[in-house]
Amino acid sequence: MPLIVIAALAGAGHAAPGAPETVSLVLIVGKDSPIRTVTLDAVRDVFLRRQRLWPDGSRAMPVNLPADSPERLAFSRRVLGRLPTELVDYWNRLYFDGIRPPLVLRSPDAACAYVATDPAAIAYVPAGAVDKASCRVVLELPAAAKER
User: Fold this and answer.
1) Residues 6+ apart with CB under 8 A from 17
2) pTM of the model
3) Alpha-carbon distance 25 to 123, whole Å?
4) Would you state the pLDDT for residue 148?
5) Contact in structure between 19 and 70 (CB atoms under 8 Å)
6) CB neighbours of 114 closer than 8 A, spacing ≥ 6?
């Protein structure tokens, strides 16, 4: 079993104690990104690495937060329909085909900083964490009524 994949999925952060069960998220790209809007289906395909190029032909670089962060759990449930732990086997299968899971960064601030420097990158962050000077919102994911 490739430990690299498991380590990438595990992430390095920890969920905050008492974190709210509902999280309002936005998908962001850098100000210089050619991506102006995305659909929920396109986001799902990019984060599951089914789509690895943007419509203009540039590579798509999805960025995840740590597997145990409230934002990642909310994103995974709403967009991917599975928890991060439920995707381990999926990523292990793809790993042998040379397909790696999305990059994992420690915090929303790190995700904002990364997408600001890589025009191909897309990340999700809490709606209030967007660095508007360097990032642009391309899709909103309002808080769900209740996360399980």
Assistant:
1) none
2) 0.82
3) 10
4) 46
5) yes
6) 63, 103, 105, 121, 123
Q: Which of 24, 41, 14, 45 is closest to 147 using CA atoms?
A: 24
Pairing of strands 103-104, 25-30: unpaired
Instruction: Report domain extents, the chain.
Output: 3-13+20-141
Best CATH choice for the domain 3-13+20-141 from the list 3.30.70.330, 3.40.630.10, 1.10.3540.10, 3.40.190.10: 3.40.190.10
d(CA 133, CA 91): 34
The tens-digit pLDDT sequence of the chain (148 residues) is 344 443 343 333 333 433 434 789 999 999 999 999 999 999 999 999 999 999 889 999 999 999 999 999 999 999 999 999 999 999 999 998 999 999 999 999 999 999 999 999 999 999 999 999 999 999 999 886 554 4
* Chain centre to alpha carbon of residue 37: 16
For the chain, the first-to-last Cα distance in angstroms comes to: 29
